[in-house]
Sequence to fold (659 residues):
Amino acid sequence: MKRLILIIITTLSLNIYGQNNIKTAQMHFDKMEYAKSASILEVIIKKNMDNQKLLQMLVDSYYNNSQMEKAYEWYQILMEKFEPEVKTIEYFKYSQVLKAVNKSEESDKWFQKYKEANPDELRVLNYENEKATLKSILEKPDKYKIKNAPFNTPFSDFSALFYNDDIVFTSVNKDALNDKNGAIYNRTNQPYLELYITDYEARKSDAFGVELFSEKINKPFHDGSSSFSPDGKTLYFTRNNSKGNKLLYDKDKFSNLKIFTSRLENEKWSAPEPISINSEDYSMGHPAISPDGTKLYFTSDMSGGFGATDIYVVDILGNGLFGEPKNLGKTINTEGAEMFPFVDDNNLYFSSNGHLGLGLLDIFKVDLKSDNMLPVNMGKPINSNYDDFAFVYKEELNKGFLSSNRPGGVGDDDIYTFFKRISYVSGDVTELGTGALIPGAKVVLYDEYGKELQQMIVSADAQFNFEIETEYKYKLIGSKIAYESDTKEFFSAEGKKMVVPLVLKKEFVMERGKCIIKIDPIYFDFDKFNIREDAAIELNKIVTVMKKYPELIIEGGSHTDSRGSNQYNQKLSFRRADATVQYIINKGIDASRISAKGYGETVLVNNCADGVKCTEPEHQLNRRTEFVVTNIDEIRKLYPDICGKETEVVNPLDLIDKK
Fold:
């Protein structure tokens, strides 16, 4: 009997102990102290494998702390036991976890399940639009080289940015690491975050120092994720809502984040003050100041947004005043989390787990000057299967920073430096035949898909130079009025400066007092007036010129050799001229802009007149058609470069001899 009572008491004690542990785990989970909730749940879950609530809490504890291997381990069990009962958002989260552990096919399968259950969600609609784009991005060579920054620690380091010749970044409180009584952030079991500064950028060597950014700014709780005004004298940063050494909580017992500012006065930073648009009811953080200092971009979970956190922008009015915050809209924001904005002159960069990515948070780029503002995934190696965020880039240095918890780092979140793999393409624009420079020519650089990237008008030296990314296909087109454009395609190689000359062919020449469209001679077979295949190629060039200069009026003049009677040759030459003109009209040129005239044997280009013995190639030179501009005075008013000085007439036989 005593033994039975002892067993009952022991069993009750164990049950009470288990219930207390569950309550403790729930308490830590509700406070977002996920490291603690996970450690407790790992112990008690083994006897509660059929408890969906506990399994879900354990999965979320690991997922919310980005411990993807552990999240995957427990997600498998959760889905195997309770797939029909879980909320469909778990399909989406599980697909992200599967990406993180390199199980892409499984990830796609679970996303399809999520899509079927939520067909109208923004992230589902984005998935279809972004899938092909992401595939093409991943098929391209890497645009960037990336490496772990030397000032990372075994703990959380992130959100680095340039400040003068130094780097300011967010890291855990180093003093608390050495203090048994130091404050610990229970979500991660690491000390609270502070702002630090390092002179690594200035020294560019292994001999660098790291120190607190400012005693005035760093306080007992979180201080991090910052941005500077263009003059470097105003700091915006993220901080817990607190008063003195005490955290302040909202009605849901959550300590929200706020954006604070500090001013540099007499080489010292002032006591931080919250900006006026903060709220006690929601969080604001991750400030990013536009290059001109007029706008503040930030992350917030304020009501009226599209998802967990959205990106907003607000006008900076001066004297501590701001305009009305504006949500950047559903093209950028999704039902997921969008955060960590950064802006340069033309682009917005941000992180998201709502747009199609490689894993968890991915970094995206938006052209702020485009009409559609569509986010584009930055691809590898900027993004990985894990969290990638806090992207900044300084174009004049060709260098930037990002943060990631990808495998292979030093600690938790790590800071990575990166730079674009760039090269250059240069050349000059010259005239075909003479080699003369062509100042004023326009040179345009295109990518392999025909999108214009850069352009310039060459100066007196006719030189052009463009910065390009390596391992890509490009196209250059050089053009100028009165010249036929030249197109060159090339592939850029890393570490190699490309030299691609452009050679333009004159479209018009002055010969014998006439302005003639410059093409290779159009020849006819003996006693024939049909358009030969080689003639069609040249006539198509005439069509191009006529379309390029819609005011142009021309005459198609045909010539024969001296064999046969003058009367016969006159009729033959007209038939040849008429055939060429009809060909051009049939290609879409108005008949009023072109006329035909036969010259017979009256205008020979050599001495092969009646009675002179000549070879067949010599006679062939006379069987030709020339296209003469008949409204040259009007055309010169519109296009002064057309038909300038008289061109020296070269004996075509001399060209044959040189060949």
About this structure: Residues 144-420 form a domain with the Neuraminidase fold (CATH 2.120.10.30). The chain has 14 helices and 40 strands. The longest strand covers residues 422-431.
